[in-house]
Design goal:
InterPro entries: RhgT-like, SGNH_hydro, SGNH_hydro_sf. This protein is α/β, with parallel strands linked by helices. The chain has 7 helices and 5 strands; from the N terminus they run ααβββαβαβααα. Strands 1-4-5 form a 3-stranded parallel β-sheet. Strands 2-3 form a two-stranded antiparallel ribbon. Strand 2 and strand 3 form a beta hairpin.
């Protein structure tokens, strides 16, 4: 999602959605962060301080939230319980950490208190074939749950990217991932991933879709039944 992606000619999808909106888009995504580190390093606080009532925030995490040993500062506590905690050792100090859902749900409720609406977007798939609906990791389900628990809107970005990638085919999609990696896309790939988000948004019930321009109508592929 972050501008510049993982470096080496890659790019994130966040800024590419601006083409499809009639409102300004600010991309505050930071590469390498997780729901935990975006919270603990104060990045969510920066977002809280700049938004105002009537704004929208799109939240997507998951690629950096998985387990690590030793702890790398981004790992979330396993599970989706709001009150579940774990203790890790960070720089020689014992630190209590929380789940993805704890961090995301707290962000959503803080934003809602300011009159800001949130769209929770599920983590996108790695370029590991075969792809298929539901092929994402556990954070896809965690994202959906965080949205349903808080009344936020939800886009299954994972399944809409899968749909777009499958329509293009593996040979074409492989060109979107420089240096034989499976996570960070080229600018061309980022544009496709952005289109997949917009398609998912336009197919859903979020009021944010009222701010889409006519350009969204030209995005290929249809709505996915059941999402």
């Amino acid at each position: 999602m972050a501008k510049g992606g993982g470096g080496a000619g890659t790019d994130g999808w966040g800024q590419y959605v601006s083409t499809y909106f009639n409102i300004p888009v600010v991309n505050d995504a930071i590469g390498g962060t997780s729901a935990r580190s975006y919270t603990t390093k104060g990045d969510f606080t920066k977002v809280f301080n700049q938004v105002k009532s009537g704004d929208w925030v799109i939240i997507e995490f998951g690629h950096n939230d998985g387990s690590s040993n030793p702890d790398n500062g981004t790992t979330d506590c396993a599970g989706n319980g709001y009150n579940t905690t774990c203790t890790v050792v960070d720089n020689g100090q014992s630190v209590v950490i929380h789940t993805y859902n704890y961090y995301i749900q707290n962000a959503i409720t803080t934003l809602a208190a300011k009159g800001v609406k949130t769209v929770v977007s599920s983590v996108t798939p790695d370029n590991i074939w075969p792809l298929g609906p539901g092929s994402g990791n556990r954070f896809v389900g965690y994202a959906s749950l965080a949205a349903s628990r808080t009344g936020a809107d939800y886009v299954d970005h994972n399944d809409y990217v899968v749909q777009a990638f499958k329509a293009l085919g593996q040979t074409k999609v492989n060109t979107f991932f420089p240096n034989n990696q499976h996570l960070h896309t080229s600018p061309a790939g980022a544009a496709v991933v952005a289109q997949a988000f917009v398609k998912g948004l336009s197919c859903g019930k979020s009021a944010l879709k009222s701010h889409l321009t006519s350009a969204a109508n030209s995005i290929p592929n249809g709505c996915i039944s059941g999402l």
